[in-house]
């Protein structure tokens, strides 16, 4: 006891914490220049229909191609960017890159404009609070030619209660779809699904990975089943993310989930790789 609470503990702990703070500070001050140099890139993780196995679209996931540190995961920098506000211009760039790619995906032209693969983009709370958000979305859709119906925006389940509904209503009126991301067993704001113009509920990987695992229980199935039932009753689609095995996929299909996402299908792919993954792509048709 004396050892963990004695002065020696601080001698070890403090420098470590300071190092982390320095690293965080250093990363956060590097963001504006990194944005100028176009170091933020987007990868696309396929969203797959669970009943027919077709690719419905992709989630756009940001990465930072850092000059010294290599490809950084959003877990390393998105939280920091939210703290400093840098997430607003970074998120604007992600939206632009994501829509630009989606506008060139094969399969887009041959069906009515609202069909074709869609792209789902994560939005931080800071972006939602930014009064320019809706105008940014309108401008990016115009610039890229992507129909609004092929853009989906994801809001983290833990933050939806703090959001002003006016921009959500305006986005919905444009035809943009809204998804509540990372819904897990503890989410208690289910009534919001009726009050907000939400189209999609995304079940978190943590919930999905308990299915068909060693510590599975009937309760996990029932939680998912009731979330799916409620969503469908309200006219929402359900996407299950973090699917890693065929057992999970099968169980989610049985429980009524519409769409799946996860390493079982594919990891996040580079823009060209994702195009090759699409069934309508010329690369596949030529085989
Ligand atoms: P998210 O929106 O829930 O995205 C899903 C995350 O799960 C991604 O991590 C994805 O790579 C990962 N994943 C996919 N399949 C599997 C699987 O089968 N198993 C497991 N264990 N994980 C899987 P990633 O790309 O590291 O992104 C992490 C989080 O960072 C995202 O979670 C999202 O909250 C945030 N994020 C990513 N891109 C953006 C962005 O452009 N803007 C904002 N604001 N946040 C972003
Ligand atoms: Mg997401
Ligand atoms: Mg997700
Ligand atoms: Mg998620």
Automatic annotation (TrEMBL):
EAL domain segment(s): 24-282
Protein name per Swiss-Prot or TrEMBL: Cyclic Di-GMP phosphodiesterase RmdA
Organism: Cryptosporangium minutisporangium
Chain's gene name: rmdA_2
